[in-house]
Amino acid sequence: MPVACLLTVLTAVCVPLSRGAAAVFAVNRPTAFLWLFSLAVIPALTMPTSLATHGVAFCATGGLTSPVEAQNLLNLLLYAVPALLGVLVTRRPLPVVTGLALASLSLEVAQAFSAGRSCDVADVLFNVLGALAGTGTALPVLRTPRTAARR
């Protein structure tokens, strides 16, 4: 239930913010909204819901599991969508990838200090790979004549 409430609040915040983002980046408002919403989904799904700590920060560094495991694919997809939309909206791939990588690292550190969540280096790896995949998918779109003319 807390995730649904958080997503509802974040969606309500994204609606007015999308107007400003659309104006700043000269894109349509639905695209700006989808980008902001995809960013809001990340903390809604990954932030610790308990403030209690388990005493010692711990981050799993065990061997990487198969890349096709559901958890790894979800981590990849969770960051690929905002990266794709972020590059299409801002037309600035490097800040988008950097911001998402830092967000992933920050969320994993927060999970290391919280009870009920677990920090895992593999999560950061697949999150960053997702951000790179989303950015790589958006780059050819930026190079199309219609998109280049918009710049």
From TrEMBL:
VanZ-like domain ranges (all copies): 60-138
Spans traversing the lipid bilayer: 33-60, 72-90, 124-142
Keyword Transmembrane belongs to the record: yes
InterPro entries: VanZ-like
Keywords, alphabetical: Membrane, Transmembrane, Transmembrane helix
Stated name of the protein: VanZ-like domain-containing protein
Highest taxon of the lineage: Bacteria
